[in-house]
Each structure stands twice: as C-alpha cells, then as structure tokens.
Amino acid sequence: MSTIIVNRKQLSKAIKSLKSIKLKRPNYIIETNHDNLTLHVTDTETSLSIELDATCDRIMTGSFTLNDMSAIVKLLKDKTIDIGELKTHDVIAPVPHIFLKTHDAIAPVPHIFDSGTTITLTSDQIDSIQRASLAASKDYTKYVLKGVNFQKNNIASTDGFQLIVATTNISSDINYTVDALHLSKLSQIGFGENTTLIFDELNNKATFKSDGDGGGIILSVPMLESTFPDYESIIPSEFNSNLVVNTKQFKDNCQYIVDTKSNHVRIDIDSDRAVMHAMNRDNDIVKTFVIDSDSIQFKETLSIPFDPAYLLKAISSFDCVENVLISLIDDESQVVFTSEYSNLLHLIMPVLLK
Predict the structure, then answer these.
(1) What is the CATH number of the domain that holds 210?
(2) pTM above 0.90, yes or no
(3) I want to staple 132 with a disulfide (CB 3.0 to 4.6 A). Which of 25, 155, 181, 259 is the partner?
(4) pLDDT grade, residue 297 (50/70/90)?
C-alpha cells in the first residue's frame, strides 16, 4: 500500500482536465516519485500528463480507472471528512483502499516529445488556437481536414464548408498541421500564458507544455502529414456588399432558428434593410427577423440561403465583440465574417437548394 499527500484543489483540477480528454481507448496511469505525483491519460496517438507536487512514501507506476479518481474528488467535496489521519482542509492523503484497484500499468508511461521547432505562446494565442480549431472536420475520412494548420502567422481549419483563420504572430517560418480534436480545450485543460509548443517532425507530434504552481501539464497530439488545402486562394479580396450587424441580436436570431429546426435560413439584402427568414422544407417563410444593421452597402439585391448551424457558428466566433462585418459577393459565393476588434476571419458557403 502507498500513501500520497497532495493538494486537494490541484488534484481536483487535474482530474477534471483528464476527464476533458476524450479518447477511444484511454489508459489512465498514476506515477509517483518521492516529491511528485503524475497522472497520465493516453492511447496510441494522444497523451495528457499532469504533474503535481506531492509527498509519496514510495516510487510506483500503476493503472487506475477514472471512476476511482472521481470517487476521490467526491470525498474532497466534504472539507471535514477524515481521510486517514489527516483533515482535507489543506492536503489530502488518499486512503490506500481507494487505490486498491490500481494494478500494473497496461500501457507505458507516455514519452515526452520535447525536441523540434519550439514556440512560446501567450494566452491570447492559446485562445486563437482554440477558436481557429472549431472549423475542423469531424469526419475522420477527410484526413487532413481534421487538422489545424499553423502557417505564415496564421492558424486555420476547414471542413470544406466553412473556414476559420486566426492571424497571430506565432512564426512566419512554419507550416505544420496538427490534429484538432483536443485543441479547442487548451484553456480548460490548464494551458495559458507562457505555454511552450513544440513541433517534432521526427516523431510527428505536437506537444504543449506548461509549468504552473504545483506542477506541470503536457499534452502531446499527432501531427498530420498530408498537405493542408490552399485556403488563402478561396478568401475573396473584393466584395459587392457589406453588412454591419449587432453580434448578440444576430446570434440570438440564429439560435432561435437552429432551436426550431428550420430547414435553412435566407438572408435578403436591399438598399434600405436586411432581413433573416427561417424557412421550411417547402421553401416557405416560417418567421422573419429584421437585422439591426449600422451600415448596409450593396451593389445589387441579394437573397442568400444558409445552413442555420453554420451561420450560428460563424457569428459565435465573434461573441466577444459588439458588431460584426458580413461581406458578400453574390447569391452563390462565399460569405466572410470579420471584425476590426478580432483577429479572426470566418468564411461560410451558402447552401445549394434542390
């Protein structure tokens, strides 16, 4: 049996981070040294390791289930409960029987890939990575489209129907594509200011490392070898119409249309107003919203159908700014969402109605 003394809040946070990583066949590993405790979750491609300052009476490596660790968290919520001979006010010492199910590790401790092109990220760049990853394809048959591309100070993802590009000064000399699956959760896992990002071409791994109070966090994800699409060629340089909309009102309207399961959205723009229609399968108008716009610039009357989910995702990319500029060409071409107060560009395609 083994006794481990570790900070209650740090352990609770670490377990939440482990639970945020969704792997198909996860292996949970506990590794102790005399002065630290490391929790790992890993499969054949992805791994997350969280090191905590701890006092351990022996060195060990073993496997555990997430239910075992969740049981500990449940105990920690009662700040007066006795755990062994210690109170849980400042530290906790898990009773050995909580770890009775711990057995010989069935997977090796994840290897840390820490050589290659290295970049130090700010918290704003972490946020840009998270937001830029949201257009990546969930269809794993589209291999390269499930990735986030780091290239020319841009971070981009696309599923073929939408494109998100975040412009940031990471590095102009890189061109790597990283599996997007866990990149939208970097802040939730615990990454922030002064996170190190390492692109290891030899092992095809991208590794995020952060040293914080009480320990460190390491996330290793696959790099994708296929060539990422030339997305810059599909971003229009000129537009015929521009529409400045209130972000909250536009988003609320889109959310209503998504919630009511309308077949598609149609946006009509003319000289003096813009409206959004919720449409049914027969192409009939179910509900109409007048779009509150500070500015409408147009060369021709437009009537453009959209997938409600994509329209909602596009406006949601800018939920931290008051107004968004929507730039359009015609009824069938790509539409671009931007804001002078955001480094994001979100492009979506209209739907083709049968």
Answers:
(1) 3.10.150.10
(2) no
(3) 155
(4) confident
